[in-house]
């Protein structure tokens, strides 16, 4: 079954929660050398405005593989150019002052090859700034795989889901390439009450669960969502107002390439 394109409207339901890590990553970016900026995996363009405001006068390029997301990004007016590309193999016309990637690279495999490749696209003194969810070991994510394996065995291969290395692995990989800052933050997110299902299920449906749901027929996907709602209610109990306190861990790093 061919994977469906991203659903920008479903993704945007939790826009403010998803934007906070983007701000936190941007706030750790220091002085940049001359050159253009790249929002790698720009999605719907949620980080475009903050990059434009933070680095006035810099050309800003937005790249993504999703046509639907790029159409949304275009409406922001934040980018000088938007391109639909395979970000794993893309290369710029000239070295970049900044490659900024918020909640994207965990969808791509082979980080031992990918990250040195991206670092090699930087101008001297340029920065590679990355944020990725580190939530796969949490119940919110494991539950999708457990339920599909139990109730729809053989329909989904968990190895196709996004995943990342451990922090120490990134340190060992990146530290030889420049000056590295590496950290994790666990966000305690209040998800608002929802009438269409458990808030954690709706939050994860637009991101981590996409490959799982895409692998099932519509009626099976509907049943899996019902099963998830039931199980999530025990793991992430609803508060009196129907909201949920949802811990979500994210990994960050900023790598500065050596200066000339």
Structural features:
260 residues, alpha/beta, Rossmann fold, 10 helices, 22% strand, globular
How are the SSEs placed, and which strands pair?
Elements: H1 8-12, H2 15-26, E1 37-40, H3 48-54, E2 60-64, H4 67-76, E3 81-84, E4 96-102, H5 111-119, E5 122-133, H6 139-151, H7 167-174, E6 179-191, H8 199-205, H9 210-214, H10 218-235, E7 244-256
Parallel strand pairs: 1-2, 1-4, 2-3, 4-5
Antiparallel strand pairs: 5-7, 6-7
Walk me through this protein's architecture:
- This protein is an alpha/beta fold and 260 residues long.
- It has helices spanning 8-12, 15-26, 48-54, 67-76, 111-119, 139-151, 167-174, 199-205, 210-214, 218-235, and strands at 37-40, 60-64, 81-84, 96-102, 122-133, 179-191, 244-256.
- The chain is built from ten helices and seven strands.
- Strands 3-2-1-4-5-7-6 form a seven-stranded mixed sheet.
- Helix 3 links the parallel strand 1 and strand 2.
- The radius of gyration is 19 Å and the shape is globular.
How far is the first residue's CA from the last residue's CA? 48 Å
- Structure summary, number of beta strands: 7
Radius of gyration: 19 Å
CATH fold description:
Rossmann fold
- The mean pLDDT is 92
Given the structure, what is the number of helices? 10
| Tally of separate domains | 1
CATH homology superfamily name: Vaccinia Virus protein VP39
Order of H and E elements: HHEHEHEEHEHHEHHHE
């Amino acid at each position: 079954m061919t994977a469906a394109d991203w659903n920008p409207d479903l993704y945007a339901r939790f826009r403010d929660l998803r934007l906070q890590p983007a701000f936190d990553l941007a706030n750790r970016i220091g002085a940049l050398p001359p050159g253009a900026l790249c929002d790698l995996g720009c999605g719907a363009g949620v980080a475009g405005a903050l990059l434009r405001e933070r680095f006035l006068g810099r050309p800003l390029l937005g790249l993504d593989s999703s046509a639907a997301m790029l159409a949304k990004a275009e409406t922001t007016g934040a980018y000088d150019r938007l391109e639909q590309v395979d970000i794993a193999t893309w290369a710029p016309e000239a070295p970049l002052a900044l490659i900024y990637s918020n909640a994207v690279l965990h969808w791509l495999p082979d980080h031992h090859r990918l990250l040195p490749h991206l670092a090699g696209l930087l101008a001297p003194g340029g920065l590679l700034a990355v944020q990725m969810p580190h939530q796969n070991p949490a119940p919110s994510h494991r539950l999708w795989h457990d339920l599909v394996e139990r109730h729809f065995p053989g329909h989904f291969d968990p190895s196709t889901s996004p995943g990342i290395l451990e922090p120490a692995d990134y340190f060992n990989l990146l530290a030889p390439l420049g000056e590295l800052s590496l950290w994790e933050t666990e966000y305690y997110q209040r998800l608002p009450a929802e009438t269409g299902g458990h808030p954690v299920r709706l939050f994860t449906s637009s991101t981590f669960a996409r490959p799982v749901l895409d692998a099932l027929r519509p009626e099976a996907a509907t049943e899996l969502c019902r099963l998830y709602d039931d199980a999530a209610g025990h793991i992430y109990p609803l508060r009196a107002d129907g909201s949920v306190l949802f811990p979500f861990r994210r990994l960050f790093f900023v790598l500065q390439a050596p200066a000339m």
